[in-house]
Each structure stands twice: as C-alpha cells, then as structure tokens.
Design a protein that fits this description.
By secondary structure, the protein is mostly helical. The protein is built from 14 helices and no strands. Helix 1 packs across helix 5, helix 2 runs parallel beside helix 4 and helix 11 runs antiparallel to helix 12.
Length: 378
C-alpha cells in the first residue's frame, strides 16, 4: 500500500515517470549498504532481536509518511528521505528473518515453507495495491498511509512472540570483514551466484512498476484504481501459482526450472508492453507474477540449503540486496528508458533484454541447469 501511495504522490507532484523511478534510486543505496552489513549483524546477534529492532524502525517511517501527508508538505525530497530510511531498516530486517527459517525446518520442508512465505508476501502485494488504490481514490493518501501504520503493528507483535534465535557455529564479529568473507564464499560458489544474477536480469531489466502511474494516466485510464490493479496483478498471479504449488517439492533440477521461469517472466513482461487493453495487460502481468513466484521459491531454497548457518545471515543480506534492490534499480532503468523511448517500448525492450541476459548467463555457467536438489552443490 505504501509503495503504491508513494508512486501516486510523487507522480502527482511531478507528473514524471523519471521522478517515480528515482524512488527506486533513493531506496537502492541504503539497501545495498545496510543489506550487506545487516546480514553480518544477523550472523553475530540474536536474529529475533535484530528483526524486532529493524521492524520498529520501519513502523516509525510509516508514521512519518502519515505526518507528511497530513501536513501537506508536498516535497519529493522528504519522500525520498523516508524511502531511504525504510530501505535501510528493511535491509537489516529481512536477512535476519530469512536466516531464521532453516533453523525451524529441515531441508525437505524448505520448498513448501518458501512457497508459504511467498504466498504471504504476495497476499500483501495483492491486497495492498487493491485496497490502497481504493482508499486513495475515496479518502486520499493520508488515509492509505494511516492504514499501513496501524496494520504494521501486527508484524511487530509476531516478531515479539518468536523465541530467541542466536547464531550457531563459529560466531565472529559483525563488520565489513565479515561481509567480505560472505562475498568471497559467494564468488566461489557459482550455482549460488547464478541465483542472484538471473534475478537481477529479471528485476533490473524488466521491472515495469515505475511506469504504472503513467500508463494509468495515458493508456488505460482510471487513475489510482488502475494503478492498484496493475500493481496487484503480478501478486495475484503468484498467489494462483502457489495454490497449485504442491508439485514444487518434487522438482530435482531446480536450477533449470529457475532459468525457465525467468525467461517466462521476461516474455510475459514483453507481451504486457504490447497490450492495449487493460484486461489483457493484467493477464500478462499475472503470468509474470506466477513465473517469478516459482523462480523465487527455488532461488531461496538453493540458497538456504547450500549455505552453512554461520554464513546464512550474510548471504541472506546479499539476497535481499538483489531481491529488493534489483526492482528499485529496475524502477530507475524503466523510468529513464520511458523518458527516452516511451513507456510501451521501454517495457517490451526490457522483457526481451531479460531473456537475452538470462541465456547469456546460462552460457557462462551451464552447470546451473544441472543443479540437483538431492545432491546440492553450491
């Protein structure tokens, strides 16, 4: 809901897709720094306490958004600063939470658990934009920010109820030396590295969400409600795919399926760029969301299974930089490309570039398509 409201507010203030794309730039650099450092922090401290502290920071950012909207500050600079602070807290929070999961479940349960995690994520990305678009249309931006701030308290309560989860194995000191240790481990494990690179190919080159306000205003009509539909469509597709996800636990060649799904994502985004009817566009966005969901499940599973516990926080930090930072860089790329080429051409070319980059990565490391879940080699 906050992401949608921010995009609408920035576009209302500036009338520029490039300015909306800069929201991604404001989020990326804090995400990069704090994602890497926060991952090392999660490997040296109780992961519950780390996640709880970072979530409290996120809640405070939600309260600031309520205040600036209610006061009608009307400054994009303030919005960019809040986004940067949100991104820093998010980057510390998510590695700690993700590193908890393998401590609670065995490897055989992780595909199902990651599917459930993806479902909860996409429920938020479905209900958030739909409800947010409706609330903004009926009551304005302040009401949407307020609902977000109130409901965020549920996340704080859930983290508070978790047991203590200190790190296992050899515990060092948090810091950049620990970060470099994790990066050296990743560089030497090509299958793990590929999970990050193929996701970057999709999210940086073929992420169209920064263009949704402009498409709603110029192509599809409907204003905030249409932005809500466009934002929710990928999540709806992901939820539908998760509904029939029982077969995922039986997949052995997980790397191959990741490659197929990333290419399917790029194809769906390219087809979305060609669609002039809103209903057809929503269908292709839903298909893209379904493909991304399957890819995300196995990228998470490969990372969790192939990484030792003492490095999971740091590798999850890299993961969140890629998973969350990639789309933010994608916002900048899409906004810039749309300024030069127009929204439609930017979307189509991004989808095709995603497919081409993925095939080049497979040519660089063909062993990834042979990754076997029963004999995981990082």
């Amino acid at each position: 809901m906050t992401t949608l409201a921010l995009g609408i507010q920035v576009y209302d203030l500036t009338g520029s897709s490039f300015a909306v794309g800069l929201v991604g730039a404001a989020a990326f650099f804090p995400l990069l720094i704090f994602g890497l450092y926060g991952g090392s922090f999660s490997d040296t401290h109780d992961r519950r306490k780390v996640a709880l502290a970072a979530s409290t920071g996120l809640w405070f950012c939600s309260l600031v958004l309520v205040a600036q909207s209610a006061a009608d500050v009307g400054q994009t600079g303030v919005l960019y600063l809040v986004v940067a602070a949100q991104s820093a807290c998010f980057a510390v929070n998510n590695p700690a939470r993700a590193a908890i999961l393998p401590r609670l479940l065995g490897p055989e349960m992780l595909p199902a658990a990651n599917t459930l995690s993806t479902v909860t994520w996409n429920v938020g990305f479905t209900l958030g934009p739909l409800l947010g678009g409706f609330i903004v249309y009926v009551s304005g931006l302040t009401a949407a920010y307020t609902v977000d701030a109130i409901t965020f308290m549920a996340a704080l309560y859930a983290l508070f109820r978790l047991p203590a989860i200190p790190p296992e194995g050899e515990v060092g000191k948090a810091g950049w030396a620990a970060v470099w240790e994790g990066l050296r481990f990743l560089r030497s494990r090509r299958n793990l590295l590929m999970t990050f690179l193929v996701d970057l190919a999709a999210m940086v080159l073929a992420q169209p969400r920064a263009l949704f306000p402009a498409l709603a205003a110029t192509s599809y009509g409907g204003g905030a409600r249409t932005v809500g539909y466009l934002s929710a469509a990928p999540a709806i597709g992901a939820l539908l795919a998760a509904t029939f996800s029982g077969w995922l636990g039986r997949i052995r060649l997980q790397g191959l399926l990741v490659v197929v799904m990333v290419c399917a994502y790029g194809s769906s985004i390219a087809l979305f760029g060609f669609s002039s009817l809103l209903s057809i566009g929503l269908l292709f966005l839903a298909m893209a969301g379904a493909a991304d969901m399957v890819s995300a499940v196995f990228r998470s599973t490969i990372l969790q299974v192939a990484t030792p516990d003492e490095l999971r926080g740091r590798l999850q930090g890299v993961f969140i930089v890629v998973v969350a930072g990639g789309p933010r860089l994608g916002d900048v790329v899409a906004g810039t490309a749309a300024t030069v080429l127009g929204e439609r051409i930017a979307i189509v070319s991004g989808g095709l570039a995603c497919i081409g980059a993925t095939l080049l990565l497979v040519a660089w490391h063909r062993g990834f398509v042979r990754y076997d879940a029963q004999h995981p080699i990082p």
